[in-house]
Amino acid sequence: MTTVLPDHLPIQPFTRPARGTVTLPGSKSLTNRALLLAALCDRPVTLTGALFSEDTHLMAAALRKLGVTITAEESAHTLHVSDQANGFPAHSAPIDLFVGLAGTAARFLTALCAAAPGGSYRLDGVPQMRKRPMKPLIDALRTLGSDIRCTGVEGFFPIEIHARGLCGGPVSIDASESSQLLSALLMVAPHAAAPIEITLVGGVRWPFVAMTINQMAQFGFAQKLTRTGDTLAIPAGRYAPPATYAIEPDATASSYFTALPLAAGGTTHIANLLPPAHGLQGDSQFLNVLTRLGAEVAPFNGDVDITVQPGSVLRGVTQNFSEFSDTFLTLAALAPLLAGPTTITGIAHSRKQETDRVAGMVAELRKLGQDVHEHEDQDGLTITPNLAELRRRAATTSLEIETYGDHRFAMSFAILGCHDLHGDGRPWLSIRNPACCAKTFPHFFELLETLRKNSLAP
């Protein structure tokens, strides 16, 4: 059972170097993609290593409302998807689907419902979801024959879809604000009446698109998907999945525990984490950043050890995070502990995620007494550390981090709070609304506390 967290959670610093093994939850990105792909198949699929969190619950609940059977075994991290032929049953009234703040569920379900042979579907989320980019996907699906009506502000949730399938043909999409917009279109494209040719307008975070294409292949889409410059051609076809599909551990979530030795010293052993170039997830590139900071990164048999030796000088870096931006907060939160400035670029699109992550990070770091310059092009920030000022501000009172309801603020700054700032084990940093981590990592704080206790063992 998950521990009930208080509204304000003090972070207990590590008084001894970190040590222990971390078993990560499954990837949220891969779990929700796998759920969508399984729903598009014509035979049962068992998903192992699946993530059980708020985002994946919302995705599974929506698919169940669409008629797909999903049986969950949470203790075994397993989801069984079946009865796909019963999906999209005929209804006289629209089916209402709620996506909360889950961007993957919002984009993937919009594409799935538009590709359905018939029926009406109404999709909505929390107020913040109504601000997140949807227009490029909506416009692309309309070009392919979909009847999508924005019942609030044009280009945003809530929407109503009157499905009649996708006709295929040429279409363009601007996925610069979120690669999920393109991924959603790609995954349903094989079910169109004719091949689809997608022309990309603007940049896109290609690692996430490549992850989607590779996962489509793993689900048995054997037809040749080709890329010529900025154009992707997807032939019509069907998925032929394996009976069992294994989901990789979450590379984004790994960033917090791979960064822990930078705050506390010592070593963390991450089980089954695939290094860059060995897995589907681009966010494993964060391991390369740790090496540049001064940590020792040693992959072995699908596991990874991260070590920071006593007396090591950890230095600030300049890093473009455009291809793995969910991890930029991990580095930014630790910047006060680094020697020299840290410059982070390639993150303009993160202003339109769960919250404006750039503005939020600037505000929280300044609260900690750090010199933060927000770049005029809105694409990044430079952090000049001031550890003395951080100690001064934390000397008499605990500093509180506002999370903005964003799980990545909570987890990133929790790792900073593990640093023994005063040298006596006193908590000096607290996290507001730590329960927001339920979105992707419900057991984060329990795991962090387990590691702290392990470090104290003889």
What does this structure look like?
The chain has helices spanning 28-39, 54-65, 103-115, 135-143, 179-188, 206-218, 251-264, 286-293, 328-334, 357-367, 387-394, 407-417, 444-456; strands spanning 8-10, 21-23, 45-48, 69-73, 78-82, 95-98, 120-124, 147-150, 159-162, 169-173, 196-200, 226-228, 231-234, 244-246, 266-271, 296-300, 303-308, 318-320, 342-345, 371-374, 381-384, 399-401, 429-432. The protein is of the alpha/beta class and 458 residues long. A four-stranded mixed beta sheet has the order 2-15-17-16, with helices on one face. Strands 4-5-3-14 form a four-stranded mixed beta sheet, with helices on one face. The protein is globular. It starts with 7 loop residues before the first strand and ends with a helix.
User: Biggest sheet, strands in spatial order?
Assistant: 2-15-17-16
Class from secondary-structure proportions: alpha/beta
- How far apart are the first and last residues' alpha carbons, in Å? 28 Å
Low-confidence stretches: none
What is the helical fraction, as a range of percent? 25-40%
Categorize the overall geometry.
Answer: globular
Profile the largest sheet: 4 strands, mixed
Helical stretch tally: 13
Number of strands: 23
Strand content: 15-25%
| Estimated radius of gyration | 22 Å
**CATH class designation of the largest domain:** Alpha Beta
Q: How many domain modules?
A: 2
> What do we call the CATH topology of the largest domain?
UDP-n-acetylglucosamine1-carboxyvinyl-transferase, Chain
Based on the structure given, which CATH architecture of the largest domain is correct? Alpha-beta prism
pLDDT average, as an integer? 94
